[in-house]
Amino acid sequence: MNLRHVVLSGIGLLLGVSATAQINILNAKTPDEIGIKTEAQIAYDNDEPLPYGYVDERDVLWSKTTWEYIDLDERVNFPLYYPIDTMNIGSERRSLYDVLVKGIKTGEIEHVYADSYFTEKRTLGDLGASLEYVDTTDLGIEQFNAEGIVDPEYIRRFSLDAGDIQAWKVRGYWYLDKRQGELRYRMLGLCPVANEARSKAFDDESIDASVDLFWVWFPSARNVLHNAKAFNRKNTSQPISYDHLLNSRRFHGVVYKEDNVQGDRSVSDYINDNALMQLLESDRIKEQIRNIEIDMWNY
């Protein structure tokens, strides 16, 4: 067997393994069996997120913390946004927002905070005001004043969904591992950005009430993100887990803040009303981080 046959056989084997991403779709006798693994598949998978290696503080030669803004209008960031309509697709495909909210509601994600420094912990009840808005119509108020009760038909409820998310904010830690001799990145937290649910009750589009809904401590959410798959536009038989997508930085973000002596002031605090200069400053920060690794090997 020549080298060409060996290579082709290896590719065929990999394709056969990756095809299991569309779970049981080729062997299902009824549509209900699609997505259900057999006992042999479950025992064979043993699928867990790739664990982080231990990094001693003495091995960190240099570090910098950055905050990035991920605009979901950019095409490269679409896997974090879609799908927003889940009525016509399978339950295995959900947007990043739906995955995190479901994890919070089921208790699989416990470390939820109000800020990117993870100082004030939030519960599901605390998030209710931002994620859902309840309003009573004028007729309902009149009924309450007259009868002391309000019929459900006079109560309006507005909830945020995946389509309302405008962007994501992420906090990450860049560091030089002198033992490995390379620059590495560790994501620490991520946060959905959207208008509050109350804004859906009003038609005044001139009001921009976008807020940071909540911050999730990323390392504690890795198991949930690993089990949720993002769409792979190049190969649908091999979807990408959100854990892999975020850890490998398969997104485009703009640095809007870095740790600095001025109390971690953001770029917009010292570059006002000039979007172009803010983008150039973000690129300067990124280039400065990249040059650290290059300079380390220059003697």
Description:
It is a single chain. With 299 residues, the chain is α+β, with helices and mostly antiparallel strands. The chain has 2 domains: 1-46, no CATH class; 58-123 and 162-296, no CATH class. 31% of the residues lie in helices and 22% in strands. It is built from 10 helices and 11 strands. The strands form 3 sheets. Strands 1, 2, 5, 6, 7, 8 and 11 form a 7-stranded antiparallel sheet that branches. Residues 5-21 have low confidence and may be disordered.
Q: What's the short version?
A:
With 299 residues, this protein is of the alpha+beta class. Helix content is 31%, strand content 22%. It has helices at residues 3-18, 39-45, 78-81, 96-106, 124-131, 138-147, 222-227, 242-247, 267-270, 275-296; strands at residues 60-71, 112-113, 132-136, 155-159, 165-177, 182-195, 210-212, 215-217, 229-230, 240-241, 254-258.
Summary tags:
299 residues, 2 domains, two-stranded antiparallel ribbon
Distance between the termini: 49 Å
Q: Please, what is the average pLDDT?
A: 82
N-to-C series of helices and strands:
HHEHHEHEHEEEEEHEEHEHH
Coarse structural class: alpha+beta
Gyration radius, rounded? 24 Å
% residues in beta strands: 15-25%
Choose one word for the global shape.
globular
Fraction in helix: 25-40%
Give me the number of helical elements: 10
Number of strands: 11
Give the biggest beta sheet: 7 strands, antiparallel
Number of domains: 2
In terms of per-residue confidence, which ranges show pLDDT below 50 for 5 or more consecutive residues? 5-21
